[in-house]
Amino acid sequence: MTASDMGRGMMGGAPGGYGMRMMHLAARPATVSAGAVSLRVVNTGAMAHEVVVLPLPPGQVIGERPTGSDGKINEADSLGEASRSCGAGEGNGIAPGAMAWTTLTLRPGRYELVCNLPGHYLAGMYTELDVTSR
Fold first, then answer.
1. Left if phi > 0, otherwise alpha if psi is -120 to 50, otherwise beta: which for 63?
2. Which tens digits make up the pLDDT trace of 37-64?
3. Phi, psi of 15 (to 5 degrees)
4. What is the pairing mode between strands 51-55 and 109-114?
């Protein structure tokens, strides 16, 4: 996976001054088999990022979760995250140029991978991961 942005100083309507779709999160491959799934995230941007794994309910489209006044979505249903520079699991964000990872056991279904730092979701930092039966 890669997390990227257009760098500091972006202007726009999203909280934190981030312009819409100025950030990007990409999963490669976008479809994996159920079971143990390791996500390795490389931050190629100029800002810290994270990747939170959330189940995607039937009929829900990525990028449509409501955000609070803090520019973040509710991540109460999180299955795990990669947000520790050069380490596994939770942390304070993946520093620019660093890598993080997490390994989760995922069932077949659709998942939304998001960066939930303030304003990043609104700026386009989300992608879908599809998990199929073996």
1. left
2. 999 999 999 999 999 999 999 999 999 9
3. -55, 140
4. antiparallel
